[in-house]
Amino acid sequence: MFLSEAETEARLDDLRRQRAALDRAIAEHELYLDLGRRLARSGGAAEPARAAPAPVPSPDPVPSTPPESPRAQPAMMPAMTLATPPAAGAAPAPVPEAAPPAGVSARREGRRLIEAAEAILAEAGRPMHAAEIWERLAARGVTLPGHDPVAALNTRLWKRAQGGTVFRRFGDAVYGLAS
């Protein structure tokens, strides 16, 4: 049996929608893993005891018809438990007073990233593409979350160049220091 061109196009569209849904689910899982690792590193939450990994279920066969919308699919994210509730009558765990609010450390990291990018541009003495800046940042041990750190860096530099800071945009993803 041969498929018509319209049927083939319809199946391709279905598969593309399924792939997009899987890509979103993968990105969400990676985001949760990264968040958990950051919290464990910063001491923001007690690290849970390591248990044996849960068995991975075998993938279901690809359905012949896609769901009506991505929202109609059941959530594929596992439930995240950040803390266990205290037993009845037990005192709650003490909260460290020196811990900064959640957004403060992220802003601090962002400032460090921008300061490092500014130092790299000052050392180079010329405008550089965001990919070049990222290579030098990565060599210094700087990390950025996400699938494309160059795009994330480009966005941050672009926003700051619009804000009239020390950065100036010279072209597509090319930045230098304002004179």
TrEMBL record:
Composition bias type Low complexity, residue spans: 42-53, 70-79
Domain HTH HARE-type per the UniProt entry, residue ranges: 111-179
Positions of the UniProt region annotated as Disordered: 42-79, 84-103
Pfam families associated with the record: HARE-HTH
Residue stretches in coiled coil: 5-32
GO biological process: regulation of DNA-templated transcription
Ranges annotated as biased composition (Pro residues): 54-69
Span of the signal peptide: none
Protein keywords: Coiled coil, Transcription
Designated name of the protein: HTH HARE-type domain-containing protein
Natural source organism: Methylobacterium aquaticum
